[in-house]
Fold each of these.
Amino acid sequence: ETVVTQTPLSLSVTPGQPASISCKSSQSLLHSDGKTYLYWYLQKPGRSPQLLIYEVSTRFSGVPDRFSGSGSGTDFTLKISRVEAEDVGVYYCMQSVQLPPYTFGQGTKLEIK
Amino acid sequence: QEQLVESGGGLVKPGGSLRLSCVASGFTFSDYYMSWVRQAPGKGLEWISYISSGGDTIYSADSMKGRFTISRDNTKNSLYLQMNSLRAEDTAVYYCARRSTFDVWGQGTMVTVSS
């Protein structure tokens, strides 16, 4: 099973400041088809998770461009260039290169200072 | 718009069974493979099971294999999760989600296993 580890587990950020979350996998997420199957989700308080980024760096429809994803192989990063109040919640990374199972990181809770 | 709506959750005694449903609308359900994901209270996300668009390929998490069964009825735009031999640790919100990207999620249905 591919283990996915997120850091930090919590983050407190002043509005307008950047934020960064790391996601490391126990195995390379590069598939033989050339794609890297690493995703980022945000679960706002009391809501279902929502897709932010797919295949490392592609923003999903409607996701603001202050969100960006990067990385390769086993090391990945989600960056928020300027945090806004609406960005609070728990961020999860997930891998789907090797099934089963899909595996999620533990989650990173972002709060506003 | 594209939507998933789960139902069927509730309170059940340990050892009991429940069948969850997820009804899709706003997209061609039969074109997409689907998954169930759960979230225990205050915990993270845990993938349960995946089913291909035609229902011929199924993957399940080892920890739930043999107790939980995923299925679908494309004529009813519906996804199901049959849960047997329920345990206290199965208490969670259960979500259905579309594709391997999980690009659409339902609102979730709460399952509580308690005597």
Amino acid sequence: DAKTTQPPSMDCAEGRAANLPCNHSTISGNEYVYWYRQIHSQGPQYIIHGLKNNETNEMASLIITEDRKSSTLILPHATLRDTAVYYCIVRVGVLALPWYSGGGADGLTFGKGTHLIIQP
Amino acid sequence: DVKVTQSSRYLVKRTGEKVFLECVQDMDHENMFWYRQDPGLGLRLIYFSYDVKMKEKGDIPEGYSVSREKKERFSLILESASTNQTSMYLCASSSVETQYFGPGTRLLVL
């Protein structure tokens, strides 16, 4: 899986849009960009993923550059409950391929992520 | 709504005890995973299962075993708990493209 680079921490004012960047310059053509977040002492929570088009769901928007070497996660109206560590992961998206037959697990690998702090 | 539940949020056990951690998903997913998460080491895959009664070792299976008797349930077993198994344990299940995590079990082995 391609490596990702994220800033270690960011602040954002409550009610404003939080824009979290991620660099993935070695991304391959069949690799998706995934975003997860982890609130302290809880399990990771899936946010959004995309291949090359921009994506939006009820939680966030994902903007992927045309060359796919970087992306931005946007939380449009940040609240205090959005304070968490946000992980950008790049990987092949189809988990149901016979990845298990030759050994080598297909688990997720989380880097250090960005600690987003929403300020009141 | 996607739901993965784990049997306990917090657990305290003694060295040498047998420990069972249970995970249940209600999404009819075939793939399920057990991870542990430790400060500075990130998320590490212990075991995963791609079907009932099927299991595969992840990166750190030593000291653990698993059981998948029903599609919705994936159990992690510590045969003889040791202090270095004190950790946050996370279960996940996945659709074709995405993994969904449970709330985690924080295990302390004394």
